[in-house]
Fold this protein.
Amino acid sequence: SAVISQKPSRDICQRGTSLTIQCQVDSQVTMMFWYRQQPGQSLTLIATANQGSEATYESGFVIDKFPISRPNLTFSTLTVSNMSPEDSSIYLCSAPGEIGYTFGSGTRLTVV
Amino acid sequence: RKEVEQDPGPFNVPEGATVAFNCTYSNSASQSFFWYRQDCRKEPKLLMSVYSSGNEDGRFTAQLNRASQYISLLIRDSKLSDSATYLCVVLDYKLSFGAGTTVTVRA
């Protein structure tokens, strides 16, 4: 399966600032996915990042708040913009593997 | 109705016991099903895919019932290291995750 390197692993940020999370995959993948996992809850899909086209956002998530880049088939970034304490969560990227999907190790974000 | 629903547990079982739990899904057209394991503060990791005929991987057995739209996971001879949250995952045009079933195996 694909191996995904995600960074930063954690950060504490001031409200009103932005944080960019990076994911690097060790193989080329057509689609990458960004999820949020709030404490005690399961994963919620934020958007699908397609190489060569704009990301597709799920209901409740907008590009201005969560801009995504996908410059090539092995890399993607998610930015959490103008952060508020409600954005405190774990953010995970994912890519399809030979079987199922592989996840990055997650970014634990705390907004103060 | 949630797309994927799981019994949250927790299931607290002694070592060596058998534990089983289910997950239901709402989209009858869903084609692929997975069980993932998530340890505290870690990312989900694929435990096994679930095939129509049911499948087994060591101590783990997964079953799919399309008519009733549920999948199940059974763990035999539980080990302490099986303690985790087990996520039911269903794929149609996207992955949909259950909220997870927490299993704690005690010595």
